Amino acid sequence: MFTAFYAGMRQLDTLVVESLPELGGQVATLYPEKIIRDVAGFAGIKGGQLVTALHKQMAAFPDFAPTVATNEEVTAIEQTDSYFTLTTSQGTRRTRNVVVAIGGGAFAPRKLAIDYDPKLEGKRIFYFVKNTANFKDKTVAIAGGGDSAIDWALTLEQIAKKVYLIHRRQQFRGLESSVARLEQSQVQLVTPYLIDQVSVDPTFKLGLKQVRGDHHIDLAVDALLVNYGFTADSRVLRKWHLPLEHRALKVDQNMETGVAGIYGIGDCVTYPGKVKLIAAGFGEAPTAINHIALKLYPERRQSLHSTQLER
């Protein structure tokens, strides 16, 4: 979405093709209520609010606002002369350049490695949060030890009756600032334990086993939020026959792949020193677009700053 905005600022005609029903990727689909802290200018912003702001930003230059096609999957990319032909679930499209910004690709949550009734998902067991109000005044257990688990523990602490954070290690893998906030919070840390049983008779209860020990704990809770991360499937990149390195698009300093005219940004790319953060992806977008603009219109030697446009 930011790439499309920046392309509009450079007065380039842009088409955004999205396989999902709405723009926003994982942030819109999985984390609309999560506080995101790696976006410049915001100490913290909910995922849904960030996507709303990006929608507004995309419309900043009406004459070059992007065309958006949702529920449309790109199945093949072929080069013909100076154009690329995109075969999609809705037909074909032609373009001079392509920017691939698919994140990690198709994603699915890592689930509990124990047997449980799948009917509990969405009722007692959750893998992502669409609405934090569903946890108001409830006792919630969160499983995980990374940034996402810590962020949800701190977020739900504000509205839940009680929050447990279950992790298999004594130490957490989150950002230092987040771990410091966690240690000062009222979240009850349950370490080092793993969930080895889920029961619902007569109440929803978690059976916890001590890691490298024999101690067991039973926790009666209203809900369990599992934050073991997500598995990503980037096989679509192989279908498009693009040059890969460790299942990611290999790009150069201009964010261009080994196929001239095809660029990649965000979590789907790799290069020396790559950092997989939203902030980094935002920074990669202008690099790709400025290089495209220079190739299409070599007379535009200088990349424009927003302050120049305002003059």
- Which architecture of the largest domain would the CATH scheme give at its second level? 3-Layer(bba) Sandwich
CATH superfamily of the largest domain: FAD/NAD(P)-binding domain
Low-confidence stretches: none
Shape descriptor reads elongated
- Multimer state: single chain
The CATH topology of the largest domain is: FAD/NAD(P)-binding domain
Order of helices and strands: HEHEEHEEEEEEEEHEHEEEEEEHEEEEHH
CATH top level of the largest domain is Alpha Beta
Roughly how many Å is the radius of gyration?
Answer: 22 Å
Report the portion of residues in β strands.
25-35%
Number of helices: 8
Number of strands: 22
Q: Name the structural class.
A: alpha/beta
Helix % is 10-25%
Mean pLDDT: 91
Distance between the termini: 25 Å
Question: Major β-sheet, in short?
Answer: 5 strands, parallel
Q: How is the largest sheet built, in terms of strand order?
A: 10-17-11-12-13
